[in-house]
Amino acid sequence: MYYHIYNRGINNENLFKENRNQDYFLQLYAKHIDPIAETYAWCLLKNHFHLLVRIKSLEEMVLLQESFELKKIIPPHQSFGNLFNAYTKSINKSFNRHGALFERPFKRKQVNNEKYLQNIIKYIHYNPVNHGFCEHPIEYPWSSYLSCISNKPTKLQRGKTISFFENIDNFKAIHSQNGEFNDIDWF
Predict the structure, then answer these.
(1) What are phi and psi of 103, to 5 degrees?
(2) Distance between CA atoms of 109 and 5, rounded to whole angstroms?
(3) What whole-number distance in Å separates Cα of residue 126 and Cα of residue 139?
(4) Separation between Cα atoms, residue 65 and residue 126, nearest integer Å
(5) pTM of the model
(6) First vs last C-alpha separation in the chain
(7) Which residue in 187, 6, 29 sits closest to 103, CA to CA?
(8) Rounded distance, CA 12 to CA 1, Å?
(9) Are 50 and 127 in contact (CB under 8 A)?
């Protein structure tokens, strides 16, 4: 199943105070989320983030467990909780703060049709444009847009992400059109 997962800092607090924070979040993301999900799009902004993932089936997790000799399969909600807790501990230690960093619970919306999937991918990539950080997703370094249009190795499901737009040229063309996102259902 595909999910749009998003959250923000508690009381609108910044989650990412320095560039190294985004790097560390992505390292923790790889550790905690890659074993249980495939990632199709992501964007990290100062006070919130968006992800589009497909949660792996139990069979896929078992196969991964066998190949990496893991001791236990961690449920997806716990994997996300572990990510958020590990990141919060790091930020609290680095910035001499305490307590929660993320709003609870994190938000998730099941995505169950291809048109909606395409809209969510564009919405995620357009988030920095919508918030005034840049004029086009290509200008923003903390999203998966650059990975989508690059040939560099990535854990992102680039081929599958592009296939939702038919091909790379159509992906770029659709992302060059400023979009209205009124059709996105927020619950």
Answers:
(1) -70, 150
(2) 7
(3) 11
(4) 35
(5) 0.89
(6) 17
(7) 6
(8) 29
(9) yes
Helix (H) or strand (E) holding 110: strand 107-111
Give the list of residues 6+ apart from residue 1 with CB closer than 8 angstroms, or none: 54, 55, 110, 112
Instruction: Determine contact, residues 121/41, Cβ cutoff 8 Å.
Output: yes
Q: Three-state SS string across 53-71, please?
A: EEECCHHHHHHHHHHHCCC
Residue range 101-115, pLDDT digits in tens: 999 888 999 998 888
Domains and CATH numbers, the chain: 2-176 (3.30.70.1290)
How far is Cα 125 from Cα 63, in angstroms, rounded to an integer? Answer: 32
Of residues 79, 158, 154, 117, the one with CA closest to residue 3: 117
Digit-coded pLDDT (tens) for 54-89: 999 888 777 655 555 555 677 888 999 999 999 999
Q: How many whole angstroms separate alpha carbon 77 and alpha carbon 94? A: 26
> How many C-beta atoms surround the C-beta of residue 133 within 10 A?
13
The answer to whether residues 151 and 70 touch, using CB atoms and an 8 Å cutoff, is no
| Residue 51, phi then psi, degrees to nearest 5 | -135, 145
